Structure formats: C-alpha cells, structure tokens
From TrEMBL:
SUPFAM superfamilies: P-loop containing nucleoside triphosphate hydrolases
Listed InterPro entries: AAA+_ATPase, ABC_Ni/Peptide_Import, ABC_transporter-like_ATP-bd, Oligopep_ABC_C, P-loop_NTPase
Keyword DNA repair: no
GO molecular function, one term: ATP binding
Entry protein name: Peptide/nickel transport system ATP-binding protein
GO biological process: peptide transport
Protein keywords: ATP-binding, Cell membrane, Membrane, Nucleotide-binding, Transport
Length: 340
C-alpha cells in the first residue's frame, strides 16, 4: 500500500512557489524577510534551500504550509501552488486537506515535534485517521507498515514504545513515518539531520533519498552544503531573503556563478582535497531592516563595483540555472575563482 507518492504532477511540478514575499513587523516598521522567491519542486527530486542562518529558509518553508507565525509575519505577495490550490490564499478547509494529505513537514528536533504522552503507534494512528476513514485496527496495521517502510527495526513491537524510549535517529524515522502516513506528494524537511550524529545523519538522508526515488518531492532546508552535494538534485541558494543562485546541484556547486555561492562552497570542509581550513565569508547576513537597496550581498562581496549599488531586479537565466548578480558574466569570463 505504501508505494509511489500521490499528487497531481501533470504540470511537471508537485509544488510551485511563485514570487513569494513574506513581510515582518519589526521595531523599525514592516520589512520583507523573504522577497520574490520562486522555484518548483519536481517529482522524484530533492530540492535544497540552502544558505546561512537568517537568510529566510525557514520562513519560506513554513509559509508553504501557512505555518509561519501570523502574529508577526504576513504573506505579502505570491502564490504557492499545490494540487490545484493556492496555499497563499486558501481557506481553512483547503489548508486542512493540503496539510498532511498533499504536503507535510519534518523538523530538526524530533523530540519537540511529538507528544511524549502518546505511544508511537497512537501518534501515527491519529495522523492516519485525521485524513482517512479507517478503523483504529486498520490504522494500527498501516502504522506498523509505515515504520517498516522507514527502516525502524522490529516495527510492530515499536508501536507500543513511548518517544523517550527511542534514540534520536529512530525518533526522526518515526516523524518521517508520520509525515508520509497519508502519502503526500511533497515533504518539507527543515534541517532534519542537524540534531543527529554523522552516521545517523547519513541513514536519514539515505531514507529521504529513497522516498524521493519512489516519487516524492522533497524540499530540504539546510545550511550544510556537503549534505546538499551528496543527496540533492537541485539547489536554491538564499541570501538576505532572496534566491541568489539556483540550478542543478552538481553544476552550481562545481561552478558557482554568484560570489556568495562561491563563498559558501569555499566554506565546506573538503576532506578529499585536504582543505580542512574553512574559508568563511567576512561579515554576516544583515537583519531585514538593514538590507541594502542594491545587491544585498554587495557589502560583503570582494567583486562588488559601483554597478552593484542598483537593485538586482532579475535572476539572469541560462538553461536550468539562474543567478542574481549583474557581474556574473564578467566573473566567469575572467575565470575568477573567488574563494578557491
Ligand atoms: N516570527 C518572526 N517574526 C519576525 N521576524 C522573523 C520571524 N521569524 C524569522 N524572522 C526573521 O526572518 C529572517 C529569516 O529567518 P529564517 O529563520 O527564515 O532564517 P533561516 O535561513 O531559516 O535561518 P536559521 O538557519 O537560523 O533558521 C531573520 O532575519 C529572522 O530574524
């Protein structure tokens, strides 16, 4: 029964984010923390949303499911298209249907996302029965199958376990089982392995890779380019609320066209080439009320020129790649390897 993920893929995407801007109320007034973000998630692919802390990855991911904090954040522009619905403007009934049935999410800290008072089996049964008219007994049988599918050893006996009885890695598998219980077409994973040790991290990423290969579209939110390069198909690099570069992972990471991406690539420890010294990008991501009017990366960019003071209104496309840098052509023509 747990086979390929469902969903309406007739347009070639399972989820389309089109010109999404999210504004925040700050002491200094209302400012965009996410500005004009657009990308698609395609079936069978892991799409990474990568960037430093504060670049807007989590706000973007939460906004897809309208789980952002509505006390301070507001979707100002854009569409979030999934299964014929626009999540940006959907009413409560559509939201309820899409969440869990079409798009679901796993978070960084599994222990914080599960009720410690319920057994693993009860928690999964509840999720199944929220969307499917099945008996408790049938749901419990499905829960056992789900645990088996996500690689929990001895799955039927684990149904009676409480969250505190499981390791972090097993608990993250349980969270993934809950997230895929109603066969959504899209899974959003926000730093799903950050809290886990390296071996377990690899196992969880291998599980996500398998789910993608079986048909699911996965949005992987991460600051870890090593994980992106090993497991993702496409990458969207975010900086200061905007996508600055996107395209197939192999191309973007081996030949970055945006100086920011180049800086991030330089910051990945490369054991094979013995480049263990991390080169970091000087400075930090500015807070949203201090975003520069021109290129937002310019103050940290050693290649910035006067022309970078004007806003970069467009992402320059070339085949499957896009880059938000007015100087990108000169940089590649000059063969500059900024942070090699
Ligand atoms: N609820 C909120 N209200 C107001 N501003 C917010 C809120 N949540 C996040 N922000 C601001 O939005 C910007 C982007 O934050 P976000 O958490 O999306 O970044 P991130 O790239 O996911 O970073 P991290 O990896 O640290 O989670 C930050 O400047 C942050 O301070």
């Amino acid at each position: 029964m747990i086979t390929r993920a469902g969903g309406n893929h007739e347009n070639g995407y399972a989820l389309r984010i089109d010109d999404l801007s999210v504004s925040a109320a700050t002491a200094g007034g209302v400012v965009d923390v996410v500005s004009g973000v657009s990308f698609d998630l395609r079936p069978c692919e892991i799409t990474a949303l990568a960037g430093e802390s504060g670049s807007g990855k989590t706000v973007t991911a939460l906004a897809v499911l309208r789980l952002h904090d509505v006390r301070t954040l507001r979707i100002r522009t854009g569409r979030i298209l999934v299964d014929g619905a626009d999540m940006a403007s959907a009413g409560p009934d559509v939201l309820r249907r899409i969440r869990g049935e079409k798009v679901s999410m796993v978070f960084q800290e599994p222990m914080n996302s599960i009720d410690p008072m319920y057994t693993v089996g009860s928690a999964i049964v509840e999720v199944i029965r929220a969307h499917q008219r099945v008996t408790r007994r049938a749901a419990l049988r499905q829960a056992g199958e789900l645990l088996e599918h996500v690689g929990v050893p001895d799955p039927r006996n684990r149904l009676g376990a409480y969250p505190f009885e499981l390791s972090g890695g097993l608990l993250q598998r349980v969270m993934i089982a809950m997230a895929i219980a109603n066969q959504p077409s899209v899974l959003i994973a926000d730093e799903p392995t950050t809290a886990l040790d390296v071996t377990v991290q690899q196992q969880i990423m291998q599980l996500l890779r398998r789910l993608a290969d079986e048909g699911m579209s996965i949005l992987l939110v991460t600051h870890d380019l090593a994980v992106v390069s090993e497991y993702a198909d496409t990458i969207n690099v975010m900086y200061a609320g905007q996508i600055v570069e996107s395209g197939p992972v192999r191309e973007v990471l081996s030949e970055p066209e945006h100086p920011y991406t180049a800086g991030l690539v330089g910051a990945v420890p490369d054991v094979a080439n013995r480049r263990l010294e991390l080169s970091t990008i000087p400075g930090r991501v500015p807070p949203p009320d201090e975003f520069p009017a021109g290129c937002r990366f310019a103050p940290r960019c050693s290649f910035a020129e006067a022309e970078c003071d004007a806003p970069v209104a467009q992402l320059f496309p070339r085949e499957e790649r896009r880059v938000r840098c007015v100087r990108h052509a000169q940089l590649s023509l000059e063969g500059v390897e900024p942070y090699a």
